[in-house]
Task: structure prediction
Amino acid sequence: MASTGPHRARLNSPYGWTASFDDSQPYIQVDLGETKMVTGVVTQGKPGEDQWVRSYTIQYQGQDVGSISRLGTTSVKWDTYSEGVDGEPTTKWWRSLNTIIFKVFTGNSDSDTPVKHYLKKPICTRYLKICPTPGDWHNACSMRLEILGYNPEDKLDNTYLLVTDADVKFNPDAAKALLDITARDPAVGAVCARTHPLGTGAVAWYQIFDYAIGHWLNKCANNVLGTVLCCPGCFSVYRAKAVKNTLPTYCTHVTKANEFLIKDMGEDRWLCTLMTFDEFFKQRRRWLPSTVANLVLMIQKWQTMVKNNNNISRLFILYQLLLLFSTLIGPGTCCLLVSGGLNYAYGVSVTVSMVLLVLTSVAYAMICLYTSQNFQLQMAQVLTFVFAIVMAAVTVGTAREVVEGLSGPPPLPTDAPTPDPDALVLPVPVSTIYFLTIIAIFIVTALLHPTEFFCLIHGIWYLFCLPSGYLLLTIYSICNLNDRSWGTREGKTVGSGKSWTEIWWSFVDAMRRCCNCGPTQEVEDQNAEEIQSEPPTPTQAKPPPTPLVEDPAEEEEEAADKPKRKKGFGAVAFSIGQLGRKGWFKPRTGQSMARRATRKQSAWRRSLLDTDKLSTAMWLPAEFKDRYLNSFLQHGYDDTTFIAGMSDGDLEFIGVTKIHRPALLREIDKLSEYQIDIKVPETVEEWLDMIGLEKYNDKFVYEGYDVTSLVNIEEQQIRENLGINKAAHVKRMLIALSKLRHPSELDERIDKVKKVVSKLTTQKMENVSQDHVRYRENRFWAKLRNKCIKQDYGVFSQNVGLKEQLEELRNSWLIILAVSNALWLTLILTLAQQANLQLLGTNPLGLVFLSVFGCIIVIQFLAMLVHRVWSLMHLLARVKYPWQRWEDDVTVPTPDPGADGQTKTSDVKAKMMTINETAEEEVYDNPMVETDDQPVYDDPNTL
Result:
């Protein structure tokens, strides 16, 4: 019997494939054209003839194509699809025990009925073989078939990642709106939402207007003209395929200073609802250099981007170039604005005010270069307050200028040259037209965003803080460009340094004690020496006895002999006999210590201590134990609950050398954060037990502290009055003092979730058996983290060359900023004095400046109008018909294989994930969700 070609073997074909009669091991090979994920096979017999295959196996060619033999031919390796016990897919563990069970699929029993088989484990291959079992066919080895599966890239196209911060509040409708945009256009790689800063205070009010203008104008212009250049992590949706395409670039380690700014200092957008002035400056210190660096990189590679991205045009690159130019001369322009306003408000000479502003800017730059971060931020706060007062006067002066401009052109000075009668003179000054245009654009923009109109009111705070945002913040960011820390993620380092006020008062207190001008602290110093002479190690089986009364009956008996507690924070003088007494308190027994250690602790903290607490001697790596163990213990880092959260500055303070700090930071990063409950304890003793500092209870009793007086304790009083000087203990106490308040509703909800989590039975993925899917998943993520995501601790501190590169880059940026603004101010001020060079009532360079900035704002306004139309269309498209039920179901078109093998469209309803108030009520009602029990091949695609 002659064979029939395999090209006729498609499902439902009027023909079919028939193997040669003398072929003892027939097979049909399928070339899928490219690598596909095969999920199943459908077979039929030969139509019109009594021929079919009863059973068959599947062979596939793995991703390792083979090797080249000595003769130059390719030796291809074929694997047979196999399954383990109970039909589970074969793993390497089963293969190692030689228990491979090749899967034999049941074939057909007639010529026309299709038989479908789904694979328990998908096959990633391009070449596939269907191998009929030798001799197990009816009349002849004939069949028709279809391969089921999908393209992995198609799956990435329809997979989306919702990224958000922990402090962002959103509802499911917001996520659905973002998904609408990505589903509408396959070319969209990411889409971000409009974010609103929460909280109160001047910084929050400033951010409300700042974020409003950024979204209303800047992001809309980028979206309409080209592409949005930043989708912040506070609330955005990313297409998985877009993330996959960019990961190879951004997962590489930093080797150059400019790469550090582009990759490691700008990918995060930490929108904190409780942001303070210092945190705001630290955050923007990262954003500004990173934004400028990425913008410069895009302009440098504009030809490649225009060629590869259809959304980026030459006009869009020109627009970004204008933005870069305006950012560069922003400080000088701000100085001109302040100087001109003071001239109109108080008649201050422009030259005098400009000299003062330049000297102030240079002085603050010197402060940022040669002083500590805390002092820089303190001076920034002072200058911000001063500039806010100045801007109030500038606002009045600018308003006066606008009013005078509307009333007519000002009279020319008597010594001015006679103007040319043919010169073009506008009835209203150009500056007045510019200011009125900006105000009108802002008002119209706010009216087109009716739900956000009141954001415009906060523009007054934005105006007052204009010099701070465009002058001080720019100087602070550029001068600290070599600062590798994030600023908003580091906790307060206790003991690493004191402010100048603390140093001054410490000096005054020392002089007072030397002159015997105040009460002595001999008792406190003696107790402090007793406690710190032999620092207890957590590895000791029995803690040293500490004077403390445990038995209430004994407390009554000894009440007469006990000294009276101090009132408030003042000192009390005792007689010499009282000072000499040593038997005030009874030493604690081992049972008493054990009872107190477990008393009145939350379930969350108990679970933390039971699972994560290790002594420093057990935690510290062996190579560092002999060298640094005593340093850790002397500064109070007795166990991992104190060590967790240590920063590079903390390690430096306790004496860890620079070369060893990165390794210790990697180990510290693995520790769980120590949790302190937000509550008001009944007694000081309970509070100290709760935070693990019960050994200081005697000092608090002696000093007369009660619960109500705890909230007034400051760091200086902890060190001097209580004699607590260990850095870790002081840090723990300061953090605990900040948690001394009655829990709010949100705190109670958080505590409720913690209690629920603490009751769950958990198991680390690395501890499961090696044949379990969770073990393989843990190994995958561990490799990915170590290769791509692992933080480069101290990368610039270890490599002197890279550190010098970062400092050189900072110096270069400072020179560029200083030279460009100096040239800009010199040209503007010089041309302003030349009345014969006036054009339209102003100097030519000033007219160019107004034209550039005016062109930018007009472009953004027009783009905003287009974007508003798009938003209206999107809103109307999401409105449900009156007769349609209001459900959470979303209709998603997916490919569906037809009977003829062609792909057609069918509607599959998938409910969106809804996050309710409690963790138990989270519902994942999607039939296409993959679980550990069954594969996701309910409706596979035909290749």
DSSP finds 36 helices and 17 strands in the chain. The chain has six domains: 6-150, 157-330, 333-413+421-491, 521-762, 769-793, 889-937. The longest helix spans residues 373-407.
